[in-house]
């Protein structure tokens, strides 16, 4: 076995990966299996280095110290030796040859150092990394490709410089300038060009092209199946397939017109000059898009409109009577919107394409979204659809189901189960709209393009699947006692507390890690300059916000009783969705944080469910 050379706590010089530069580091530990040293830089960054990348500080002392230690007699002999008048040319030739070699070495050192510095500046993680949002990892794939392209370009330029130098084809004045620095302007122009060049999506998700093609048809079929089952007297899973309605009954022009009116109304509320305007995270070209935060105001205005309609005796349970037609209208609209988004993305600049939807495969890019932030002027289509029509529509649908239950069953008051479902889900929507700014750091906004997946999810899946419990209770009323209602309420409050406090803890730490109120939190520093929390909620499990989500989803389904599995579809779906997201986060975080993520996983072994998963 190889012996260990450097001890723990020893101060040495460590080479930064991908460069020729060495920095002062302290040895933290040594792995006998991988034979790697864990070293800590002065800024807190911890990396694993091979022994060949570590040197003693004494090896970096200037050679001048060696010449100064030579014997005095030798120095005096050298000084006393005079040049013979008979050989001045030889002495000059030797002097010019030595100076030329010295100049060549100096130039080579400057050029290689500038190259290393360039790679370090471009690819060394920075505190202001643009992908530092809620759990969103970086993609190292693009960095590797850009680094190789940059090195090849600069090295080819260096070869040209050396040929010109060898044959004396450069003017002396230009040569003098080249000795000082290797074209700083050209370097940063190269950086700019490379950063604007998008990389192709290589890691395909959702089963790749075949999986994406299947999901385009499977998702709408799932929504229609769930709604048809809820309409049955016995919505058992054994009663498959449910009786299919006539095709002509699924479409009604009036219903489609109402849906369009709803979409336009929310668009008008979005365009109102109320609410603050904030900047999003930096894009690949350095730009920051502006977003108006007025989702909560739009919700208040929508409530006023709905209240006005009810005051003038508008029958809101019209939504329940034509629920399937509304779902079909929303699906048709989302498909048309997706086609428009893909066609316009073909003309979008390269730097505006989504990193996750630039595979070059039509079906996959259509499904995941080819363009990152499609806009019509200042109207951001993806940001608008993320919270407005679907999420606010979810609350309106729940209210319509409550009124339909009262009318169908001749009740003066809605059932306790229906009240709980409406209140729990109303709290969830209001929380999302109140904290609207937080969505700007999610993967939906910063990473995923706007295609069929998000269009269908925002406009169809959210309003028509998330309201499944309320729709179920209209045809299958469940009576629960007050003690049971109180227990379910406590469960929902626990889930909401975990969800909100975990997100707030993370957001506050990211915004101001030095806040004295957060002094009790411990974290692991990473090479990106961001810390990984190992105490608080994020030291309990790796994704406590997902845990809170699942607990709330269970509380939403419990008022529906246990006669059928159908109301619990949302819980099953939500668990599968979050497990998929968690696996995706794990993969990207491992790429982004490297050794620091492995240490974090050792501190926090459970992902979502403590002591289980």
Automatic annotation (TrEMBL):
Could you say which EC number(s) this protein's record lists? 1.3.1.70
What's any GO biological process attached to this entry?
Answer: cholesterol biosynthetic process
| Record GO terms (molecular function) | Delta14-sterol reductase activity; DNA binding
Bias class Basic and acidic residues marks the residues at 99-108
On the tree of life, the source organism's domain of life is Eukaryota
Q: Where is this region: Disordered?
A: 58-108
Q: What class of enzyme is it?
A: oxidoreductase
Q: Which family does it belong to?
A: Belongs to the ERG4/ERG24 family.
Q: What is this protein called?
A: Delta(14)-sterol reductase LBR
Organism annotation: Podilymbus podiceps
């Amino acid at each position: 076995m190889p012996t260990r050379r450097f001890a723990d706590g020893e101060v040495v010089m460590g080479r930064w990966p991908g460069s020729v530069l060495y920095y002062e580091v302290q040895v933290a530990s040594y792995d006998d299996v991988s034979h790697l040293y864990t070293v800590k830089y002065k800024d807190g960054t911890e990396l694993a280095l091979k022994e060949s990348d570590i040197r003693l500080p004494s090896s970096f002392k200037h050679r001048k110290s060696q010449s100064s230690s030579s014997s005095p007699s030798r120095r005096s002999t050298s000084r006393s030796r005079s040049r013979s008048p008979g050989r001045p040319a030889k002495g000059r030739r030797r002097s010019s040859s030595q100076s030329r070699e010295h100049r060549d070495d100096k130039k080579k050192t400057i050029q290689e150092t500038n190259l290393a510095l360039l790679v370090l500046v471009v690819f060394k993680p920075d505190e202001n990394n643009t992908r530092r949002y809620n759990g969103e990892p970086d993609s190292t794939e693009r960095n590797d490709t850009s680094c190789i392209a940059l090195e090849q370009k600069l090295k080819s330029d260096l070869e040209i410089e050396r040929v010109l130098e060898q044959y004396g084809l450069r003017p002396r004045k230009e040569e003098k300038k080249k000795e000082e620095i290797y074209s700083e302007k050209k370097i940063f122009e190269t950086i700019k060009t490379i950063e604007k060049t998008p990389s192709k999506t290589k890691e395909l998700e959702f089963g790749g092209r075949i999986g994406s093609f299947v999901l385009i048809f499977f998702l709408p079929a799932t929504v229609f199946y769930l709604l048809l089952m809820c309409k049955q007297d016995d919505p058992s899973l054994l009663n498959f397939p449910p009786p299919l309605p006539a095709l002509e009954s699924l479409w009604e022009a009036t219903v489609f017109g109402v849906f369009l009116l709803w979409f336009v109304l929310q668009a008008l509320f979005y365009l109102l000059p109320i609410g603050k305007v904030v900047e999003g995270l930096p894009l690949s070209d350095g730009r920051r898009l502006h977003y108006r935060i007025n989702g909560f105001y739009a919700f208040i205005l929508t409530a006023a409109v709905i209240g006005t309609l009810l005051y003038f005796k508008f029958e809101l349970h019209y939504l329940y009577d034509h629920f399937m037609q509304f779902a079909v209208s929303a699906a048709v609209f989302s498909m048309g919107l997706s086609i428009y988004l893909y066609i316009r993305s073909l003309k979008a600049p390269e730097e505006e394409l989504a990193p996750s939807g630039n595979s070059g495969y039509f079906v996959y890019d259509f499904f995941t979204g080819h363009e990152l932030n499609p806009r019509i002027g200042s109207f951001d289509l993806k940001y608008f659809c993320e919270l407005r029509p679907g999420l606010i529509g979810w609350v309106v649908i729940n209210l319509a189901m409550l009124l339909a239950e009262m009318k169908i069953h001749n009740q003066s008051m809605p059932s306790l189960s229906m009240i709980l479902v409406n209140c729990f889900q109303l709290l969830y929507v209001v929380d999302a709209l109140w904290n609207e700014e937080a969505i700007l750091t999610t993967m939906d906004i910063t990473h995923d393009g706007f295609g069929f997946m998000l269009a269908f999810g925002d406009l169809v899946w959210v309003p028509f699947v998330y309201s499944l419990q309320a729709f179920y209770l209209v045809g299958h009323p469940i009576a629960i006692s007050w003690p049971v209602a109180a227990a379910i309420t406590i469960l929902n409050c626990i889930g909401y507390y975990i969800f909100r406090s975990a997100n707030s803890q993370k957001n506050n730490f990211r915004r101001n890690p030095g806040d004295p109120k957060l002094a009790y939190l411990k974290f692991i520093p990473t090479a990106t300059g961001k810390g990984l929390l190992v105490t608080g909620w994020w030291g309990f499990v790796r994704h406590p916000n997902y845990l809170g989500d699942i607990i709330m989803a269970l509380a939403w389904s419990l008022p529906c009783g246990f006669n059928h599995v159908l109301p619990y579809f949302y819980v099953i779906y939500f668990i599968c969705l979050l497990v998929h997201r968690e696996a995706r986060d794990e993969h990207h975080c491992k790429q982004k944080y490297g050794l620091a993520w492995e240490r974090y996983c050792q501190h926090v072994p459970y992902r979502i469910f403590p002591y289980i998963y």
